[in-house]
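Deliverable D2.4 — example input (structure tokens):
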């Protein structure tokens, strides 16, 4: 089992995670015209906090994650909600072939910095989007490694200029960033603030 499998059951009990998802959902609505006709993909969905916040504004939503534990919690939440436009999918774009379905909008929250080969995943997003289509990525701004600690083997946030270059390389245009939330963690006995950006890119 992965760390995310083990943490899945209690994931939604953290009010900071719930608030973070709400802030990102509000920012996505502010930066896009969401309609019930849009076909959406959330990548790295976890327990679906972000998609549940966006669900009333979208059509069908595929919620993809590589964690079986997170998807189990998600399936139970969907069943309990009675919603019919949300479909879980086990998917790892770093290793799996792309699904056949295409989407009008793709969004992801606090997932990209866990992925080693981000260029492969961004290229996958581009292929999976319809044209026109829109990509939203909410993730950590570049930081000094203290957010996760020394044992973390992912990215310590992202330099916005470097991520923009990778998105353009993948084919995206109209790349924009805005800081939409501040996460606070106690590091070395003192509170530290870590900005969360929302990146918007278009396939047009």
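Example output (designed residues):
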């Amino acid at each position: 089992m992965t760390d995310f499998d083990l943490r899945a059951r209690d994931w939604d009990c953290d009010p900071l995670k719930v608030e973070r998802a709400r802030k990102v959902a509000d920012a996505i609505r502010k930066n896009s015209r969401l309609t019930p006709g849009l076909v959406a993909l959330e990548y790295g969905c976890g327990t679906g906090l972000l998609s549940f916040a966006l669900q009333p504004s979208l059509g069908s939503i595929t919620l993809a994650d590589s964690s079986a534990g997170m998807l189990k919690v998600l399936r139970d939440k969907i069943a309990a909600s009675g919603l019919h436009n949300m479909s879980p999918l086990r998917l790892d774009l770093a290793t799996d072939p792309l699904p056949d379905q295409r989407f009008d909008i793709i969004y992801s929250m606090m997932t990209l910095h866990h992925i080693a080969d981000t260029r492969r995943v961004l290229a996958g997003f581009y292929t999976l989007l319809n044209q026109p289509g829109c990509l939203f990525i909410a993730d950590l701004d570049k930081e000094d490694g203290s957010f996760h600690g020394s044992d973390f083997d992912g990215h310590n946030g992202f330099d916005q200029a470097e991520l923009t270059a990778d998105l353009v390389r993948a084919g995206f245009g109209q790349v924009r960033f805005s800081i939409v939330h501040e996460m606070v963690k106690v590091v070395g006995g003192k509170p530290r603030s870590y900005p969360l950006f929302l990146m918007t890119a278009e396939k047009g």
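The chain has a mean pLDDT of 95.
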